[in-house]
Automatic annotation (TrEMBL):
GO terms for molecular function: N-acetylmuramoyl-L-alanine amidase activity; peptidoglycan binding. The keyword Repeat does not apply. The lineage of its organism: Bacteria, Bacillati, Bacillota, Bacilli, Bacillales. Residues 196-233 form the SPOR domain. This is N-acetylmuramoyl-L-alanine amidase. The keyword Hydrolase applies. GO terms for biological process: peptidoglycan catabolic process.
Length: 233
């Protein structure tokens, strides 16, 4: 089955700090949000996630969309933090002719973000002629997570738990859009050692086997090392 490719673009980086205020720089916030989103999305089947940068490096806007286009991404998310006097979260898509699907995806991601972040001003779903949403060949969205130059917003942005909530919202939106399913959890192996304390008897179990011969083999080895050994069923 063809994998869903999600391209996540942490805004700014390297010599371009993005917006700043209250001791924060935009490039240092967009990266942990994007890395958290990657980690969350990798819990699902049938998905590949790629970041435009996984460290603090300079990338042009063209390099970012070129990367996503060359890779053949199915979805492009560019993570940003707002500035300029305001508060709250907004999401932007291209203001040109876009399909109903792109608008619908914005509805889904926008509402999942607002649900995940809790009590934060919803500035609404917007459109803009930003290069990253215009030049990407796949549906693209650009969320602006709060205002770095607003004292209350900055307080939230300083909390790693809040940055994770931003990532969680985007994760939930993408799960809904692409109908993603969590990977099956591997069944945990039987306990290899187990300490118990009953009636002041301290016992250490070193193996649990379906096959008695394997248990006996381990018992023989332990006996040869001077342990007293019991096999129980
Ligand atoms: Zn930005």
């Amino acid at each position: 089955m063809k994998k869903i490719k999600v391209f996540v673009d942490p805004g700014h980086g390297g010599t371009d700090p993005g917006a700043f205020g209250n001791g924060l720089r935009e490039k240092d916030l967009t990266l942990p949000i994007a890395l958290a989103l990657k980690k969350y999305l990798e819990q699902y089947e049938n998905i590949e996630v790629r970041l435009s940068r996984e460290d603090d490096r300079t990338l042009s806007l063209k390099q970012r969309t070129d990367m996503a286009n060359a890779w053949g991404a199915d979805y492009f998310i560019s993570v940003h933090i707002n500035a300029g006097g305001g508060t709250g979260i907004e999401t932007l898509i291209f203001n040109g002719n876009v399909s109903a699907a792109i608008r619908n995806n914005q509805n889904v991601i926008h509402s999942e973000i607002m649900k995940a972040v809790g009590n934060v001003r919803d500035r609404g779903k917007k459109t803009a002629n930003f290069r990253v949403v215009r030049e990407s060949k796949m549906p693209a969205i650009l969320p602006e997570f709060l205002f770095i130059d607003n004292t209350n917003d900055a307080r939230l942005l300083k909390d790693p738990a809040f940055l994770n909530k931003c990532a969680k919202g985007m994760e939930n939106g993408l799960v809904s859009i692409f109908n993603l399913k969590k990977k099956a959890q591997p069944t945990p192996p039987p306990p290899q050692t187990q300490l118990c304390n009953s009636n002041k008897l301290y016992c250490v179990q070193v193996g649990a086997f379906a096959n008695k011969a394997n248990a006996e083999r381990l018992a023989t080895e332990l006996k040869s090392n001077g342990y007293s050994v019991f096999i129980t069923e």
